[in-house]
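Cross-posting from the modeling subforum.

Setting up a comparison between two proteins and wanted a second pair of eyes on the formatting. Protein 1 (sequence, then structure tokens):
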Amino acid sequence: MAVLLKQAEDKLGNQLFLWQEEKASLLTEAEDRKTSYLPLLREQKQANFKLVDALREAEQKLEWNHVQWQVDRSTLLQTTESLQRTLQEKEKEQDWQKAESAMKSQVEDAESAMKSQVEDAESAMKSQVEDAESAMKSQVEDAESQIPQKSEGWFPKFF
């Protein structure tokens, strides 16, 4: 049994030695891989930092562009409202000008009609005056013709 125990211990020692060699080999391989991956890891970290910086810069630009867009939008809205007010004022002014023109035309038409009526009335009155003068002249002539002529005998008889 001592031999078996010794064989088992030798076998275990052998396996331990093999295991330690494999462990050392694996540790060396791991260290080599770690050494070979460290520069790549550093490059990736730097690339990640650059990406994060680029992302932050892009976010800042996006935020600035958004603020600028809001300012531009606000300015555009104010300009649009101002133009609409100006357009409404122009439309009102045109409406007032049309109304004023229409009223002037109506006044001119009324003045023309009144002038025509006055001229017609003056003409009618002139005609009536002429007719009245003619009638009066005719009546005066008729009255004069009916007045007896002075006779010498008639007047002295009275005195």
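Protein 2 (same layout):
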Amino acid sequence: MAYGDRNTVERAINLLKQNRMVATRYDKRAATFDVTVQVASIRSWLRDLTRSKNRA
């Protein structure tokens, strides 16, 4: 990974960590945790999508 992409990756991880389930990792199984991260990613994406549509 290029050093220039580091900021983008760190910002994405921080967005995911805003979700309490991801930050504290309540789930012990890796598969369940992966799904939790996916749901948090989708929620973040949808939030950004609706914000961008409201601006236009």
